[in-house]
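re: ur question from the group chat, yeah i did fold both. here u go
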Amino acid sequence: MVVELRRIGKQFPGVRALHDVSLAIARGEVVGLCGENGAGKSTLIKILGGVYPAGSYTGEVVVDGRVQAFRATPDARRAGIAVVHQELSLVPEMSVAGNLVLGREPGRLGLYDAAATEVAARRMLARVGLDGVDLATPVGHLGIGVQQVLEIARALDEDARVIVLDEPTAALSEAETARLFALVRARRAEGAAFVYISHRLEEIAALCDRVVVLRDGELAGSCAATVPTRTIVELMTGKEADTAAAAIVPGGEVALEVERLCVAHPVLRDRRVVDELSFRVHAGEVVALAGAMGAGRTATLAALFGCARSRVTGTIRVAGRAVTLASPRAAIAAGLALVPEDRKAAGVVLCGSVADNLALCALGSISRLGVVDGARAEQLALERLRDLTIKAPGLGAEVATLSGGNQQKIAIGKWLPLAPRVFLLDEPTRGVDVGAKAELYVLVERLLAAGAAVVLASSDLPEVVRLAHRVLVLREGKLAGELARPAISQLAIMQLAVGAVEGAAA
């Protein structure tokens, strides 16, 4: 075995993250690691990758038969282990080239070699299909999906024998995912081993040799990757799977009307990231925005919430009233709420408590003369905690310590006291497990039942098919076509997204 994790245990204050977990990985093997959020997957790979140093956990990490005592991530890299974490580790202010060679900068006698850096960076970008990216661009100016590909490119370029990919396709298009799979298979043929973490079980079946499942910090079982999805879900949850979709019935009045929305490209003056987009959303209805990465989904939601990065034109009406959404404050006042694609950066305050986050949007109503009524804030937070079944040690727990699914519930739940007319949901289940995803779907359905409208931007096509009453498929900022139930299918969406069929209006 190239790597063995023997009887690993890890404790955090008040939380047992891992208990007696053992895992062995052979050369040239792709092992799928599954489990609900909070099951211990990320903790396990942080131990393997040296994020948690020896002495902070129990058990042994063994590489090529030798027990390791990693003090930090460079020790793990030197041992041949590369990890692409779900939380991106790029430096936003640094250039693309600088990030790609970070920690392995070319040079001699202590002198940095810019030419060699460019050659290495271009090689890495070509390998993952990002040849057109400007090497000098600060990474923070790029979309989350492109940043994810850069992380993957850096890991695949290292001379690693074990590569861990934690939710690598969460922000990737189907074409980018296919390219990643091809790269993984090529490296596997060369003898590299992979640990592949994903909540997309169809990816596990397509790529992995076997599956190891964690539940509540313990090993729940292992099986072949080709077993029925239901079997893996039952191992993850400990109960019989329920995959039935609840019926959603759209409602009445037009909650949001968008006419000829245009969003200028933030850099290129002659281009638009959203081009002449018009649509309506009724109360109780989900309208999904689908399309490849860069098609304009996130830019549309940002424009509607007043936080676009460039000039916006067009007409927007909320409940029949024309509004000017020049800022998030104006959007909130008009009755809109945004749950962004990157919850850690913009959806929640990670260092804040559960109570503070849940009361965040209601501060105006629970304050007097600028002083927050602590008792009312606590009562409001308790109601949300129970109502949304948020799993947390207590109201004072830092949001950063919660699982992704519970963080996402807070990102949505903080808006509920304002009773928004329109929820703008950008990748609402990105990086959450099967159980949490089902709970978030139920939450969306409750919003609809209460009369809210939802504009959903998602790269998860099964999710779009599951939730949407209508789908607007975007391609290069333009409307490529519209689909409505019962004509919504993954195939129909993909055909429009890649231009395989003419735009269809429903």
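okk and heres the other one u asked abt
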Amino acid sequence: MATPYIIATHSYRGGTGKSNVTANIAAELALSGLRVGVVDTDLPSPGIHILFGQDEPAVTINGVIDQEYGIAKAFIDVTPAGPSFLGKIFLLAGSPKPSDIAKIVKEGYTMDQMIDIYRGFMKAAALDVLLLDTHPGINETTLFSITVCDLLLMILRPDRQDYQGTAVTVDVARKLGVPDLRLLMNKALTSLDWQTIKSTIEATYQAPCLGILAQNDDIMRYGGSGLFSQQEPTHPFTVQLKAVVSQLLPLISA
């Protein structure tokens, strides 16, 4: 098996829609035939499991950290039903239990632990690509993810605070030697000049922008209940997301 490609999805602030974008990218990658792993590394405030229909996951990354069970028993097959999925999606969820969150906040974990978990997950699930959904901001989790990823995908909104925070993160990532960096704008108003925005952020951060996703009331109405791209396959958001994934696929297969 070729070495799995690791993508860390990150945003400087919360509220960018990072987890929603990450989950839907995972679904589109699996549709193309890839075996995709998703890790919720935002253990103080886990949430991506809900998008995969796992409101109370029976097994979590916390159980591995606490040595309650091994990595082979810790991930969940969350591939949507239907013949169109040629690949698979496996989720390594964070525990939403208050006691587990309090413990991880108090005791933490080591970089070596997380790297061992990533490696074990990739091997046990025979992954082609691993998506790391990170905790917003600059913190240990972010540094872990940047250290091991092949691509850092920065998700930001057309917001001055996001612009400034993204600049800080991009600078840190480059100092840490991240192999590749791409940007993705989310929650942009359709009334804005998207081409100008794209050109501006590419010039500002000296990195390609994979696309711009519109602010969408339809996504809000779903309230995080499932994978929007699969529920609404012809929606403009889904079309835009597919265009983003089409740019990721050559990187993954290179």
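fwiw on the second one: The mean pLDDT is 92. The chain has one domain: 5-246. idk if thats what u expected
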